[in-house]
Amino acid sequence: MTEKRRLNADIASSITQLKTIIKQFEKKQKLYRLILRGKGLEFESYRSFTPDDDASLIDWKASKRANKLLAKQFTEEQNLKIMFLIDSGENMISGSTEKLKCEYSAEVSGALAHMVMNGGNKAGFFYFNSKITKYVPPSRGGKHFSQFLDDITNAETYQGISNLKEALDFAFTYFPKSTASVIIVSDFVLFNEETKKSLLNVARKFETLILSIKDPTDKTLPNFSGEIVIEDPRTGQQMLVNPSIAKKVYEQQMLEKEKFLTQTCTENNIDFLELMTDKPFVPVLASFLKGRTARRKFR
């Protein structure tokens, strides 16, 4: 049997680093309050509000009647089901740094998935490129996580042109209502108005977190003399360009795409984080989670 080609992804190290840096505030905040709290949790009862609670849990009418702050207690604060939508298109194979976007994505997804399951919750994995390639229902345990690692580091997983819209439509239609959160990991290079509608459908139904994985070449062309070939991933059409001439136009187009995605997320209360492959993701992700916790207390 031919041995599978593996990505250059050090997921074990990523897990250790994220676990270490989050440990300092994880004791004060339940995991679901950081990234996992869903929209479909069932109300169970009230409990006294504490300084460590999310302010959005306060029931102001009940608190007024009781003459003290009361927080809503939900039945699924643990054992949540988290779905990862992972872009496995050939666009994720590109890169100009030590890590390709797919390798960087594997480390990010691996560290978060371990964090989810280590907290007693269930993680599911949904891979897409030009079609739906694999759907692994939420579960937990060593065997489940090992299967995830095998899939996400398998080089053959990554091929075809990403069709994020189809993936989002599938998630909206077929993900179980008990899914607490959906984490989308992609470079979003083909995000457009049509895809936006599908994203908003998912975000209205599930708590949604977007992790946009970017290589420096997704923002600007390299500085070198000569000419390069640029290919449209949708049509396969190629064009020979001079980077010094095309650079400004390219940068403007990429900036407009980024603004469109950022604005979509901001206006619709979708959590969004951009991660660059030339920078370690753990400090950035940890800072984002801390900031998200603080924002929720005042939301």
Describe, in plain words, how this protein is organized in 3D:
This protein is an alpha/beta fold and 299 residues long. The chain has a single domain (11-21, 77-297), classed as von Willebrand factor, type A domain (Rossmann fold). Helices cover 41% and strands 21% of the residues. The protein has nine helices and ten strands. The protein has helices spanning 11-26, 31-36, 60-66, 101-118, 142-152, 164-174, 193-205, 243-267, 281-297, and strands spanning 43-48, 70-74, 81-87, 122-128, 132-139, 179-186, 207-214, 228-231, 238-241, 271-276. A six-stranded mixed sheet has the order 5-4-3-6-7-10, with helices on both faces. A two-stranded antiparallel sheet has the order 1-2. A hairpin with a 3-residue loop joins β4 and β5 (132-139). α1 (11-26) crosses α4 (101-118), α1 runs parallel beside α9 and α4 (101-118) runs antiparallel to α5 (142-152). 35% of the residues are buried. The mean pLDDT is 86.
List the helices and strands and how they pair.
Blueprint: H1 11-26, H2 31-36, E1 43-48, H3 60-66, E2 70-74, E3 81-87, H4 101-118, E4 122-128, E5 132-139, H5 142-152, H6 164-174, E6 179-186, H7 193-205, E7 207-214, E8 228-231, E9 238-241, H8 243-267, E10 271-276, H9 281-297
Parallel strand pairs: 3-4, 3-6, 6-7, 7-10
Antiparallel strand pairs: 1-2, 4-5, 8-9
